[in-house]
Design goal:
- The chain is an alpha/beta fold and 121 residues long.
- The protein has helices at 4-10, 15-33, 55-78, 94-107; strands at residues 40-46, 82-86, 114-119.
- It is 53% helix and 15% strand.
- Helix 4 (94-107) links the parallel strand 2 and strand 3.
- Helix 1 (4-10) packs across helix 2 (15-33) and helix 2 runs parallel beside helix 3 (55-78).
- The chain is globular and about 40 Å long.
């Protein structure tokens, strides 16, 4: 999601609109990457530097990530994708951690594209 806040600001939009656009782009990338034989894809969602953002923005980013996981996990499972979140988990809010663990569990048997999401790296 890095850079999406600046993208939105340059267009006169709230920063959260940029983060939403970043998630939409990630969804399109995941859907089409397997169509062109990409076997492993790493998406960078939240770096350790992002903790310096205003707390309200950090909360909104995690809310969006959680919503994305709830909406996309079943779609990934149906497409045979496997989700793995990499990076530190010890600072993540409990609801986000629960959503990550559920998504990883639901998609664990996936033998198609391996989607890694880097958080707090």
């Amino acid at each position: 999601m890095d850079g999406n806040g600046r993208w939105a600001t340059r267009r006169g939009l709230p920063r959260i609109a940029g983060h939403r656009a970043g998630l939409a782009a990630a969804r399109r990338i995941v859907e089409h990457a397997s169509d062109i034989s990409v076997r492993c894809l790493t998406l960078y969602a939240f770096s350790s530097d992002n903790w310096r953002r205003p707390p309200a923005e950090v909360q909104r980013i995690f809310w969006l990530l959680r919503a994305f996981l709830r909406m996309e996990t079943e779609r990934m499972r149906q497409r045979g994708a496997r989700l793995q979140v990499i990076g530190r988990r010890d600072r993540l809010p409990a609801p986000v951690l629960e959503a990550i663990e559920k998504s990883e569990w639901v998609t664990a048997a996936g033998r198609g594209i391996h989607v890694r999401v880097a958080i707090d790296y």
